[in-house]
Structure prediction request, 419 residues.
Amino acid sequence: MEKLNYRHVAASRAKGEKHQAVVGVVASGNLEVLVERSLPERECEVDIRTAAEGFGEVWQAVVADFVERRSPGGLKFSINDGGARPDMVALRLAQAARAVEGEQV
Amino acid sequence: MNTKASNSTEYEMSARLAASWYEASARQRLAGLLDESSFEEFIGPEQRETSPHLAQFDLPEQFDDGMIVGRGRLNGERVLVAAQEGRFMGGAFGEVHGAKLTGLLRAARDIGSVPVLILFDTGGVRLQEANAGELAIAEIMRALIDARLARVPVIGLIGGRAGCYGGGSLIAGCCSALAVSEQGRISVSGPEVIETNRGVEEFDSKDRALVWRTMGGKHRRLIGGAEVFVDDTMASFRDAAAYLIQHSPALDASMLEAEQARLEQRTERFGHLEDALDIWQSMGARDAQAIPGMAYEDFVVLADQLEEPRHDAR
Prediction:
């Protein structure tokens, strides 16, 4: 099990007032994302526990791309990963952001 | 890009996908089953009550340990609910997963008037937590019986990907009543387990038709293993849950005696038969071969003609 943690400064605060949301499931090729509105409004943290070791660079790139696209300021993302591919990770992160912003996912 | 159009399309897609109980996640099932926005979770994922065992095996945890418990409303009436996520470790029972259901059932016993709905989706006990998982099954069964003795209806809903196997099927056997869809399977031993222990001649786990007609919802409904056969939709499960809450038998000595008699009779009637098809035929089905392919509405009519479950044993 590998633990990874990334902190970013987001361009703006994430929309909505919802306190938390959870999307996805821990299964092969899938992951769950728990998102909590618990940080100062420009900060963003992504905390990852993954069964697939040695993919830190890919995670870093996917997370950086996500923060740039969504500017999820104030949100902490906690991930339990079952070996998802980068496209699935990007999808779940976007779903989690939408869920906590109060949109249907 | 027109974001409004795109949002509504995604929403419709998600609603359509979630319309199937079998395809839905545990959280989607709860959302579809209960009155809108009525669900309130106990020990939610933010509390991170994860398995204390999985890390030793270098396996990933899930924040809710694959068991979601809480309270909500069904047609305005209060209910307690527990839902298993069948995609996380096959919905299998571990220490925390089981303790959440035990706690819910003990609360139901203490309250005494709020029914419990258990949304089964499980392969049984999690192998990595073997002893803790087996203990959890025993504790849940005790707590379930205590709740029923306090006159709390405990209703099982079965129609998930993992079916309802092993310890999960024992818990289902203790419930006041069960609703099952065609996709739901109920059995103590799963197909692979039987084949491994008794040989492929006894049970060929690759033969999907055999698996379905032996353990599937239609067979369980016909032999009285489940009270209600439901369609694979949120609405159908919702209706069945509301109906069974109103029509579940009390747990007492006379009911148990009647059950014992019924099970003896079942063994006598069907015990010598080799296949579910033979059983259906001996029950009076004219074209037993046609039953597996039968549409929901047609099967419900046929099942009511052949036998009406009016009992409590599985």
